[in-house]
Design a protein that fits this description.
Radius of gyration: 20 Å
Order of helices and strands: HHHHHHH
CATH architecture: Up-down Bundle
Number of domains: 1
CATH superfamily: Formiminotetrahydrofolate cyclodeaminase monomer, up-and-down helical bundle
Strand content: under 5%
CATH class: Mainly Alpha
Helix content: over 70%
């Protein structure tokens, strides 16, 4: 019997602590890692049967991309925590004279931009993953479709959660072209994730005859 407490308890303990990191951005990345894992499970169940051969190509592609996707998601979880820690550290810099104030202000801006860019990376990864499982939703093992639907919903949630972190960091920045570009990409990625997950949902609902 698998003990699902192994590893999880430590991670949840860190998230639930009074420390501001790891926070929502890291959880978004971890959520995406779970989406990848479920996608791989459905792919394995599809590849394991010759009668689901129509889905083998899609399943193989998901297995390959999600193997790296899980690794990348875990890296992003750490990156997000580090990025916010850098923001906190920048506010602690001395400001006893004009030179120090300028250094501090620059550090705050640069660290805040980075704190917005990391969750944007999570959104990109979520969007890419959702696109990768559209084909699997059409041809994957029908006995595991609810697991694939769960995978899709997790990735969609990951993108939405990450978007909140992008927004909250952008809100503290003055209007610049860079801020505008980040905001526009965020909106585009969120739209793409919603679109892909909706296609996956409708496809699975039709295959299950739930609609």
């Amino acid at each position: 019997m698998i003990n699902l407490n192994d590893g999880y308890a430590d991670v949840l303990s860190k998230i639930s602590s009074s420390s501001p990191t790891p926070g929502g951005g890291s959880v978004a990345a971890l959520t995406l890692a779970h989406a990848h894992a479920l996608g791989m499970m459905v792919s394995s169940l599809t590849l394991g049967k010759d009668k689901w051969s129509e889905g083998h190509d899609s399943a193989t592609k998901v297995m390959e991309s999600s193997t790296e996707g899980i690794k990348r998601a875990l890296i992003l979880a750490t990156e997000d925590a580090s990025a916010f820690d850098a923001v906190i550290d920048s506010y602690k810099l001395p400001r006893d004279n004009d030179s120090q104030k300028l250094i501090r202000a620059d550090a705050i801006v640069s660290s805040t931009i980075n704190a917005a860019l990391v969750p944007l990376k999570i959104m990109r990864a979520s969007s890419d993953f959702l696109q990768s499982i559209v084909g699997l939703s059409k041809t994957g093992n029908p006995n595991a479709l609810t697991d694939l639907l769960a995978s899709s919903e997790l990735a969609r949630a990951s993108s939405r959660i990450a978007s909140y972190n992008v927004k909250i960091n952008l809100d503290s920045l003055e209007d610049t072209d860079e801020k505008k570009n980040i905001s526009q990409e965020m909106e585009s990625l969120q739209h793409a994730s919603v679109t892909s997950s909706s296609v996956i949902e409708s496809t699975i609902m039709e295959r299950l005859k739930w609609d």
